Request: fold
Amino acid sequence: MRWDEEMELAIALAREAAADGEVPVGAVVLDADGQVIGRGRNLRETHADPLAHAEVQAMRAAAARLGSWNLADCTLIVTLEPCPMCAGACLQTHMGRIVFGAWDAKLGACGSVWDIPRDPHVGHVPEVVGGVREEECGRLMTRFFENRR
Reply:
């Protein structure tokens, strides 16, 4: 599975975030059947909430939809490699798979700077797939920060 269509949903959410002055990160959570059960985009500025990352928003929505915090049969699709907080949240929810677009050379925690999901001290090890529509997801970030300078 390439996750192109699902990443398109995350990209659309990232564009919405950018239009609102938020860092352009979008995320969706898929259930075991590949249905979208959670959506999120960065809302840190909007809600003055340092924890309102796209991944957290999508995981909260998915958990509410399932009526359970346990997302073991789910897949997180996100436009940017999760940070340490979001990678940790994936472990805490037992997320089955993490799929992301652009690598994050500053705060990436799923293989670039750190590799929290595959740390040998952690019991739960989700599958991690990076680089899905990487160039397009990376351009969202580059353009956003170029326009802010």
Observations:
- The chain has five helices and five strands.
- The mean pLDDT is 95.
- The longest helix spans residues 4-19.
- The first strand starts at residue 26 and ends at 30.
